[in-house]
Amino acid sequence: MYGFLIAVGVLLLLSIIWMVYRIQSLVSVVKGSNKKIATGSNKVNAILFVLFLVGTGVLMFWYSIKEFDNYELPVASEHGVVTDGLFWVTMAVTGVVFLITHVLLFIFPYKYQYKEDRKASFYPDNNKLEIIWTLVPGVVLAGLVITGWMAWSDITAPAPENAHVVEIMGSQFQWDVRYPGKDNVLGDYDYRLTSATNAHGVDFTDKNAMDDFPSPVVVIPKGEPVLFKIRARDVLHSVFAPHMRLKMDAVPGMPTRFWFVPTKTTAEMREETGNPEFEYEIACTEICGRGHFSMRKIIQVVEPEEYQKWFAEQRSFIQMNPSLAEGIPAEVKELAEN
Amino acid sequence: MSTASVASHESAHDDHHDHEHHDNFVTKYIFTTDHKMIGKQFLVTGIFWALIGGFLSILFRLQLGFPDMSLEFLRPLLGGWLDEAGKLDPTFYLALVTMHGTIMVFFVLTAGLSGTFSNFLIPLQIGARDMASGFMNMLSYWFFFASGVVMFISLFIPTGPAGGGWVVYPPLSALEQAIPGSGLGMTLWLVAMTLFIASSLLGGINYITTVINLRTKGMSFSRLPLTIWAFFLTAVIGLLSFPVLVAAALLLIFDRSFGTSFYLSDIYINGEALPNTGGSPVLYQHLFWFLGHPEVYIVLLPALGITSEVIATNSRKPIFGYKAMIISMLGITILSFIVWAHHMFVSGMNPFLGSIFMFLTLIIAVPSAVKVFNYLTTLWRGNLIFTPAMLFSIGLVSFFISGGLTGIFLGNSAIDIQLHDTYFVVAHFHLVMGSASFFGLLAGVYHWFPKMFGRMMDEKLGYIHFWLTFVGVYMVFFPMHYIGIAGFPRRYYSWTNFEFANMYTDLNMFVSAAAIITFAAQFIFLFNFFYSMFRGRKASLNPWRSTTLEWTTPLHPGHGNWPGEIPAVYRWPYDYSKPGAEEDFIPQTVPLSATPESNLPHEQEQVKLEMEIMKEEEEVLVANESKH
Questions:
Q1: Taking chain A, what is the end-to-end CA distance rounded to the nearest angstrom?
Q2: CB-count burial class (<10 Å; 0-12, 13-18, 19+) for A296
Q3: Taking CA atoms, which of A7, A294, B91, B149 is between 20 and 30 Å from B130?
Q4: Does residue B271 contact residue B311 with C-beta atoms inside 8 Å?
Q5: Does the ipTM exceed 0.90?
Q6: How far apart are CA B185 and CA B160, in angstroms?
């Protein structure tokens, strides 16, 4: 059915094009317009540019204002407020340039459309103008770059000592989360130790690994620095937490990191968005294969007290699966049991 | 053998007409060494690939815009890539995205644009009989053709074509276990790209040599049309950056087939720990983007060159700031090599590098801005004739502005954290690089069609084509900015898994519908192109009343371009509407001494020198005549 409809559509389209073409070329021969430098179409095109300017301008402003709450994701991290600020400053600066240049670009065709009795002005160069419009963008861009650079330096600076460490590991097609336990130090890992029971490849002969525990969701406290230690097990992935304005590739063989301070609990965000089901999410933004579009992980931001309570309740890998501790030296094992 | 005959044309200039060599079908249309025919070969092949690339994008836009639609009617074409419900396979979706990118960037906008117009215009506009090496030029096309054949075959193999994105980052592209397309499909991709690079290099060496060595008398670098400057610099960029992609590909081949670990490290996949350690996927990204970023300018500069020419001609005004245009192109050329890592701000590379590349990246915005202002000033107080080529050029400037400005967001690493790999990026590069270059290509075709085929394309169809495409492109890519700001990631088969991205089904539907209409509008062009080739109105010798050399050739220039002497050049290519001159253009071949009424003071001084040179030449000519 579809095939038939499409065939008919294509056929119709082709015949219309053909007819329009034949009619207008015959008309133009009759009118002798093919001898002229500029025909009546010149004026039509000039007017269309102005119509395009007005039409799309109105459409753009209308949609941008109407949809603002939809495309502007609420921000929930400290640095996110900064980068969003930069984003909107850049939007303002480029927006002005966008409007001015486009008004000129589409008004000029109307204003200076071909007239037989007029001659274009011979205006090959003007060094003063050239220098001005080299320097002005230069200065404006320098301003944008420097503010951006300051923000970037802060964001990528080493995490504070007291940051809560969470390891996020990407694999086809899921995120696995590991917490360092009470010592706040993640145990070593070796990808060769990976197995069905040890998805993270944790090296349980390292005493730091004894209290490490997994979690099905990322739980983090509000208002305190959190350090994501990011790695990948098979191919590239990328941790993207849109509300946190956070993104960092997960690279096999090269651990990466990103630290931030969440500013709103999930509960607060539910209230703010009016969506009782709201969850912070992590998505993958580096193409990783068939399931690339389905690597979802939930982040729960909670009050610090609640976080402490949750943290204390978690059971470590070893407690959940004592067989992992087989073959581990006795003194290390003792640590695990405490 | 044809190279030899070209050379003999040059030595035996006076009895040219007598031994116009007679090509048979094969030497004229297939294994031709005539730069004009090679240009046309590139063009037609480019159009073929553009249709395929465009069609692939329609397929995945159907998935994104109408996720519940059954594509059963495409089963004869897609076969097993549809599931029982008639939905696209997610793996095949990635393959579509990958192939769309590869085809459009390399086959259409590099070979189809630069290949077509560098070949066609360089000898014609600098006054040369052909390229420096016609044979190498022929090889360049046939390497490209072979590359296309390999890529085309990869579309039909059971495991599907490469599916790791057009950037083919390892480990995904190195491991067959990770995605089926990384098996044979990826091998074919690598073979095709290697052939393609060979083609680019053969072409590029030719363009550079020709521009440097074969300019006609008087055609100094300061009198070259901006098109030639653009093609020249494009070839330089290609020559310096493409080999790096070969290196990247070679290491990838080693990793894939010979067990090395350049890019692979610490991988556990499909229940198996691979032996590779010590490699770095980020190394590949550096190598890839060392080509990848200059590639953007390889695609864009020829389009900007074509636009400069078309806008000046149809504004009946000299291009504003000829020197500034050259300097900004030079600036772009140099800077294009030192900004690559802005594609990698969140790749895990050292953030300090990120800072450096952010500074360098935003510097490149300055020459781009200068170009835009110069275009605007060229339009200002012009006498504008809206030929289809002119419309597409104005459209190009609009896309260049829209897409260029969003580059300022993405070049800023702090802002890029959120926007990286979202639809904001998709919108950005499709406007500034994809659509702008595509419009440059179309502008070039409309403008030089009379020179290519001796006939005119239909203007009205050109107008309809322009307006549908111009509005269509904005309707496709402008909404993507909103989708991107909302955080929708690229290369997603569907967004319904995520709460933050489960809206905008309506907007995506709109985008897909706009894409289908825009794609359909290209058939107007196709019809116009092929119909006009045979049945179009006969063109006059200089239909746009342009100043450059190509319009001094016969309507159907033979191999060798000018039947007699190659004309000498006496002035720059932008003497439009010169005060005092009778016509609103003075061709480059008109000596300054012939136009005392319109010469500027400094040109008046050159007249004396010019007279002396002409006199000397006269003597040489006379001496030659008497020898025979």
A1: 70
A2: middle
A3: B149
A4: no
A5: yes
A6: 6
Pick B9 or B171 by higher pLDDT.
B171
Q: Decide if A288 touches B, using CB distance below 8 A.
A: yes
Q: How many helices (H) and strands (E) does chain A have?
A: 9, 10
Structure tokens given for A279: 């969850």
Q: Which of residues 299-328 of A touch B (CB under 8 A)?
A: none
What ranges in B129-183 are assigned the alpha helix state H?
Answer: 134-154
Q: Is A27 on the interface with B (CB under 8 A)?
A: no
B531 chain-A contacts, CB cut-off 8 A: 21
Say if CB A189 and CB A203 are below 8 A apart: yes
- CA nearest to B495, candidates A283, A241, A285, A293: A293
Asked if A168 contacts A239 with a C-beta cutoff of 8 angstroms, the reply is yes
Task: Enumerate residues 85 to 114 of chain A having a beta carbon within 8 A of any beta carbon in chain B.
Answer: 86-87, 90-91, 93-94, 97-98, 101-102, 104-106, 108-109, 112-114
Whether residue A71 lies within 8 A of chain B, CB to CB, comes out as yes
Secondary structure E strands in B242-307: 268-269, 272-273
B49-58, pLDDT tens digit by residue? 999 999 999 9
**Helix axes A78-111 and B388-410, enclosed angle (nearest 10):** 160
How far apart are alpha carbons B465 and B526 in whole angstroms? 10
Amino acid at B346: V
Q: Rounded to a whole number, what is the distance in Å from the CA of A250 to chain B's nearest CA? A: 8
Q: Pairing between strand A174-179 and A164-171? A: antiparallel
Question: What are the two backbone dihedrals, phi and then psi, of residue B501, each rounded to the nearest 5 degrees?
Answer: -125, 25
Helix (H, G, I), strand (E, B) or coil at A15: helix
Mapping DSSP to helix (H, G, I), strand (E, B) and coil, where does residue A251 land?
Answer: strand
Q: Which residues of A touch B486 (CB under 8 A)?
A: 70-73
- The rounded distance, in Å, linking the Cα atoms of B64 and B483 is 12
Topology of the domain covering B2-9+30-535: Cytochrome C Oxidase; Chain A (1.20.210)
Q: Where are the alpha helices (DSSP H) in B486-551?
A: 505-535
Q: pTM to 2 decimals? A: 0.93
Q: Does domain A164-337 have CATH number 3.30.1330.60?
A: no
pLDDT tens, per residue, chain A with 338 residues: 667 888 888 888 888 877 877 887 788 777 776 667 777 789 999 999 999 999 999 999 999 999 999 899 999 999 999 999 999 999 999 999 999 999 999 999 999 999 988 888 999 889 999 999 899 999 999 999 999 999 999 999 999 999 999 999 999 999 999 999 998 899 999 999 999 889 999 998 888 998 999 999 999 999 999 999 999 999 999 999 999 999 999 999 999 999 999 999 999 999 999 999 999 999 999 999 999 999 999 999 999 999 999 999 999 998 888 888 776 766 666 655 55
Bridge-based pairing state of the strands A297-302 and A280-284: antiparallel
Q: Collect all residues of chain B within an 8 Å Cβ-Cβ radius of residue A47.
A: none
Q: Which helix (H) or strand (E) holds A239?
A: strand A237-241
The strand pair at A297-302 and A218-221 is best described as parallel
Among B381, B410, B546, most A C-beta atoms within 10 A, so best to mutate, is B381
Q: End-to-end CA distance of chain B, in Å?
A: 26
Place of tokens 């990322």: A218
Query: Domains of chain B: which residue ranges?
Result: 2-9+30-535, 553-627
| Sheet of strand A297-302: strand arrangement | A218-221, A297-302, A280-284, A237-241, A246-250
Q: Report DSSP letters for B266-280, one per residue.
A: S-EETTEE-S--S--
Enumerate the residues of chain B whose CB falls inside 8 A of the CB of residue A42: 384-386
How far apart, in Å, are the Cα atoms of B354 and each of B291, B565, B596? Answer: 18, 56, 57
The alpha carbon dihedral of B555, B439, B493, B281 has a sign of positive
Residue B599 three-state SS: coil
